[in-house]
Design goal:
- The complex is a heterodimer.
- By secondary structure, chain A is an alpha/beta fold.
- Chain A has one domain (5-215): Rossmann fold, CATH 3.40.50.720.
- Chain A has helices at 15-24, 38-51, 63-69, 82-89, 120-127, 164-176, 190-207; strands spanning 5-10, 29-34, 56-59, 72-75, 97-100, 132-135, 149-150, 153-154, 156-161, 180-185.
- In chain A, strand 9, helix 6 and strand 10 form a beta-alpha-beta unit.
- Chain B is an alpha+beta fold.
- Chain B has two domains: 2-154, Jelly Rolls (Sandwich); 155-202.
- Chain B has helices at residues 2-8, 12-21, 26-33, 91-96, 117-126, 128-154, 157-167, 169-174, 177-184, 188-201; strands spanning 37-41, 46-48, 56-62, 65-70, 76-82, 87-88, 103-106, 110-116.
- A four-stranded antiparallel beta sheet of chain B has the order 1-8-3-6. In chain B, strands 2-7-4-5 form a four-stranded antiparallel beta sheet.
- In chain B, helix 9 (177-184) packs across helix 10.
- Classes of the chains: A alpha/beta, B alpha+beta.
- Chain A binds chain B through residues 1-4, 30, 62, 64-65, 68-69, 71, 91-92, 94-96, 129-130, 165, and chain B through 3, 7, 10, 33-42, 45-52, 114, 116, 118-119.
- The complex binds NADP nicotinamide-adenine-dinucleotide phosphate.
- NADP nicotinamide-adenine-dinucleotide phosphate is lined by residues 10-11, 13-17, 35-37, 40, 63, 76-79, 81, 84-85, 101-103, 138, 141-142 of chain A.
- Chain A: It comes from Pontibacter burrus.
């Protein structure tokens, strides 16, 4: 697509938000970065422009304005903050793609804070009934964005959602970030994806992968 | 505060114009609202670039936009302007899913209400009043197109300009003269001569 898509990244100063912003800045996107602390997102925007003067990244004070301008919204805040963010952007997120990257982990990283029959993505969809919620980027660590090819192999990144056109758009985003997009299924698959990342975190701690690890599906 | 106000009025003009064409019940209004996309566009940003498929009809709540084509010599030809209360799109591309031949960009910061193709199809299936609305909308667009074609083919430069400023007084005020010249198929120099002649006569 030639027309530049605008992406609002809420929580752009965090580990994931900054990593996603930096890697999407390579694509044909205009990035609006927001979080609680404007100075921190401004630093991320400055860094993006410094490394890539052609990129379009701007710190924006208000997640409502950014989401109103955006075609795509990425919620990169901790799971616990998602309800508050969703309530703020509900009106302006109408019919837009909202990407859920959250893994609803407990404080000790050995379980989830969510019931077994749901997921952070499905909870976000309930909070934003008229948005097209898509699960993506939850099975990749923040460090993977700088190195999407690990040990000579490109990491896969799973995507789940109910709207075919939105899945296609998000697949393009995942490719731009350097990962191999794998559409896993409907939004209800998100629970599996979130639990897969819980496993990867536990393996990371057990075997000391240094947070540089990912999933790859081997197939014929 | 300012923002809360504009959020509350995000769809105000859209429904005002819709109700003028086809009156809606509050329930129908809510049903439609669920499928609309609110979108802000800043000055000089594109809503659509030639070659992409036009995914939505844009209704202007605030601001001004234009649709234009670019010829082999990179000259821009303005096809349509849109200000508050108007809609703008590449209808050909929107209805056929063929690549767009128009570019659409914002002449001023704008607040839009988008009807995407999937919303359009949803409405056509479940809301007969929308069919009336869209028929009136397309009829209006057709009439405007025909009027403009006839005017460019048969009227003198001065008559064209007078007719434009009479039909669209608000646009004539807000849009740069060279774009109005382009819209009328005149060079900026010709338009400037015509305006001077008209002013001298007064
Ligand atoms: N880290 C990973 O490798 C990884 C991998 C996959 C998925 N995830 C998921 O990604 C999400 C973010 O994780 P993270 O590690 O990047 O966390 P983080 O470093 O703590 O970043 C959180 C970001 O959210 C912002 N934020 C917090 N509350 C907010 C609110 N109410 N409104 C607006 N912004 C708010 C913070 O901005 P302020 O500092 O200004 O408050 C910060 O920019 C989590 O849901 C996590 O499960 C993380």
């Amino acid at each position: 697509m030639k027309t530049i898509q605008t992406i609002a990244i809420i929580g752009a100063s965090g580990n994931m938000g900054a990593a996603i912003s930096k890697s999407l800045a390579k694509g044909n996107y205009r990035l609006l970065l927001c979080a609680n602390d404007l100075n921190k997102v401004q630093a991320v925007a400055d860094e993006i422009i410094k490394t890539n003067p052609a990129a379009s990244a701007e710190a924006v004070d208000c997640s409502v304005d950014a989401s109103w301008e955006a075609d795509i919204i990425i919620s990169a805040v901790p799971y616990a903050a998602e309800k508050e963010v969703a309530e703020k952007i509900r009106e302006v997120a109408n019919q837009k793609i909202v990407i859920s990257i959250a893994n609803p982990l407990n404080e000790t990283y050995d379980g989830l804070v969510i019931a077994p029959d749901t997921s952070a993505a499905e909870e976000l969809q309930k909070l934003l009934p008229n948005a097209k919620v898509i699960k993506a980027f939850n099975t990749t660590f923040a460090a993977d964005f700088a190195t999407p090819v690990i040990d000579g192999k490109q990491a896969g990144a799973f995507i789940a959602g109910n709207d075919p056109e939105a899945l296609e758009t998000v697949s393009e985003l995942v490719s731009t970030a350097g990962f191999n997009p794998i559409v896993a299924g409907k939004l209800a698959v998100s629970g599996t994806l979130e639990r897969m990342q819980l496993l990867l975190i536990q393996l990371n701690m057990k075997y000391d992968y240094n947070w540089l690890a990912g999933w790859k599906i081997l197939h014929q | 505060m300012d923002r809360l106000l504009s959020l509350a009025t995000m769809y105000e003009l859209f429904f005002q114009k819709f109700n003028e064409k086809v009156p809606l019940t509050p329930e129908e209004q809510e049903q439609i609202k669920a499928y609309l996309t609110p979108k802000k566009l800043r000055k000089r940003q594109y809503l659509l670039q030639e070659g992409d498929i036009c995914k939505s009809i844009a209704f202007v709540e605030k601001g001004a936009l234009r649709a234009y084509t670019v010829d082999e010599n990179m000259n821009e030809h303005v096809i349509q302007f849109a200000i508050e209360g108007w809609t703008i799109s590449d209808l050909f591309s929107y209805l056929t899913a063929e690549p767009a031949t128009y570019n659409i960009d914002a002449l001023e910061d704008a607040e839009l209400v988008l009807i995407t193709r999937s919303a359009h199809e949803e409405f056509l299936k479940n809301l007969p009043k929308y069919e009336t609305y869209i028929r009136l909308l397309i009829t209006g667009a057709y009439i405007a197109l025909q009027r403009r074609l006839t005017s460019n083919l048969s009227l003198l430069a001065e008559e064209r300009y007078t007719s434009f400023t009479e039909t669209y007084p608000d646009i004539a005020q807000r849009v740069p003269q060279h774009m109005i010249a382009s819209y009328m198929g005149l060079t900026p120099e010709t338009l400037s001569r015509v305006r001077k002649k008209m002013a001298d006569r007064r």
